[in-house]
């Protein structure tokens, strides 16, 4: 593995629960140090390294600040790669997904902005619940399958939240 672990880059222990404010502060501090502009007068190879370090830092930060990406990354560094698009053996959650999609469709048809806001806040609660569940079980190696299932659920909610944002923008116009 050529690039350092995302957690090591920020001098953090690989844990799910992070202080996002101090992660952001540390990111800004490191970003200043590796910013390619600081190497404008340096040689070509030094400039290329600065660009690489900057790109790695950005990737690490984007991964760690997102709960679902952070959860997926934690599993990956332990050798449990969770595919992004995987067949989900999770019938209960599939039903929930269908229900949410239908509800979102109705909100769209009715152009119901208040309904969208309420839907969004319920999604946020569901996401928080998944984050809490993942934090509780991820270190228990007996529960890897549960952790992976939670990551898939988190990824779905991320996608749905994105769709809700797009719907809000369309209805706002």
Automatic annotation (TrEMBL):
**What molecular function terms (GO) are annotated for this protein?**
ATPase activator activity; protein-folding chaperone binding
Q: Does the keyword Transmembrane apply?
A: no
Q: Name one GO biological process term.
A: protein complex oligomerization
UniProt keyword terms in alphabetical order: Chaperone
Of the GO CC terms on this record, one is: iron-sulfur cluster transfer complex
Q: Name one Pfam family in it.
A: HSCB_C
Query: Is Chaperone one of the keywords?
Result: yes
Classification via PANTHER family? IRON-SULFUR CLUSTER CO-CHAPERONE PROTEIN HSCB
Family according to the record? Belongs to the HscB family.
How it assembles, according to the record, is: Interacts with HscA and stimulates its ATPase activity.
**Role, per record:** Co-chaperone involved in the maturation of iron-sulfur cluster-containing proteins. Seems to help targeting proteins to be folded toward HscA.
NCBIfam families cross-referenced by the UniProt entry: hscB, PRK00294.1
Protein name according to UniProt: Co-chaperone protein HscB homolog
Q: Which organism is it from?
A: Stutzerimonas stutzeri (Pseudomonas stutzeri)
Q: What is the lineage of its organism?
A: Bacteria, Pseudomonadati, Pseudomonadota, Gammaproteobacteria, Pseudomonadales
């Amino acid at each position: 593995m050529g690039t350092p672990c995302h957690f090591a880059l920020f001098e953090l222990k690989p844990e799910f629960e992070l202080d996002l404010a101090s992660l952001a502060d540390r990111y800004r501090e490191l970003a200043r140090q590796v910013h390619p502009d600081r190497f404008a007068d340096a040689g070509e190879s030094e400039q290329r390294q600065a660009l690489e370090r900057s790109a790695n830092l950005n990737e690490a930060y984007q991964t760690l600040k997102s709960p679902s990406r952070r959860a997926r990354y934690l599993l990956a560094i332990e050798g449990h790669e969770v595919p992004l698009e995987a067949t989900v053996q999770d019938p209960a959650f599939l039903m929930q997904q269908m229900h949410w999609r239908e509800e979102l469709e109705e909100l769209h048809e009715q152009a119901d902005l208040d309904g969208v806001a309420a839907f969004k806040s319920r999604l946020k609660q569901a996401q928080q619940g998944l984050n809490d569940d993942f934090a509780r079980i991820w270190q228990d190696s007996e529960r890897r399958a549960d952790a992976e299932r939670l990551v898939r659920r988190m990824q779905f909610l991320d996608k749905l939240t994105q769709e809700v944002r797009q719907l809000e923008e369309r209805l706002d116009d």
